Amino acid sequence: MNSNWGQSVQAGLRSKQNKGYIFPVTLIISVIVSSFLLHQIENYRLEKMFYHESDQQFELEIMMKFVWDKVEEQLKEEREEIISSFEMPRGEAAVTVKELGTEREIVIVCTTRMAREYKATILYDMEEKKVLGWYETIKLIT
Question: 97-123: string of b/e by CB count within 10 Å (b at 16+)?
């Protein structure tokens, strides 16, 4: 009985003579898979940040368009007093007007709830009812 057990142990030892390649191969494969997974997670995070910033900039542009349309409408009606602030669901806008003879300098500052800011300085000719210049600054704070 002892001899049968000894023979089966020797047969098992002979079949396991693979010189230890399993562990390094498994380790390399797990490193490759983990690296790929981390790369994909980082790509997802960066893409999410990019779209968040794009959405913030888009909101600012929509706010600026809305405010400019209102101000331009008031300028064409030749109102003396132009509304100086607008409250919107995603932010607010402030408008200041400075008269420069026949021209007016209009400064519109739109700010979102997340402190992103879009500032436009517009030179508007009151006689011809057209924009002479538009200078803008967008400040995205993270």
Answer: beeeeebbebebbbbbeeebebbbbbe
